[in-house]
């Protein structure tokens, strides 16, 4: 196949490759870029949603722990039996009529 005409005439006619082929290649490249971006975005979204679920579980466990500690603080401030048990366990305190007998 010979190209007929001068270079300017060939350029004016669209060259060797038809214009619809060039347009199709541009469309195909654009589609490939869109699909790639969409797949990467979806993968990042899935990772982020898994991380969010894990953080929600951590927050819920920390809230439960915080509630338990608040209940314990309230008991330590108001319940005499809890205060006595904490003083005996943590501070090794005794009543005035008690004494320690070491056992070996």
Keywords for this entry:
104 residues; mainly alpha; 76% helix
Explain this structure to me?
- By secondary structure, this protein is mainly alpha-helical.
- The protein has one domain.
- Helix content is about 75%, strand content about 0%.
- The longest helix is centred in the middle third of the chain and has 60 residues.
- It is rod-shaped, with a radius of gyration of 39 Å.
- It starts with 6 loop residues before the first helix and ends in a 13-residue tail after the last helix.
Sequence of secondary-structure elements:
HHH
- How many runs of DSSP E, i.e. beta strands? 0
Sheet having the most strands: none
Beta-strand percent range: under 5%
Form type: rod-shaped
Low-confidence stretches: none
Rounded mean pLDDT is 88
How many individual helices? Answer: 3
Subunit arrangement of the protein: single chain
Rg from C-alpha positions? 39 Å
Distance from first to last alpha carbon: 109 Å
Question: How many structural domains can be distinguished in the coordinates?
Answer: 1
Global structural class: mainly alpha
Q: What fraction, in percent, of the residue positions are helical?
A: over 70%
């Amino acid at each position: 196949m010979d190209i007929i005409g001068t270079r300017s005439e060939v350029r004016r006619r669209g060259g060797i490759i038809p214009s619809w082929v060039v347009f199709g290649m541009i469309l195909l490249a654009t589609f490939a870029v869109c699909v790639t971006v969409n797949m990467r975005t979806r993968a990042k979204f899935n990772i982020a949603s898994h991380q969010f679920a894990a953080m929600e579980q951590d927050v819920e466990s920390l809230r439960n722990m915080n509630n338990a500690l608040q209940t314990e603080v309230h008991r330590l401030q108001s319940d005499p039996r809890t205060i006595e048990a904490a003083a005996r366990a943590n501070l090794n305190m005794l009543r005035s009529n008690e004494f320690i007998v070491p056992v070996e």
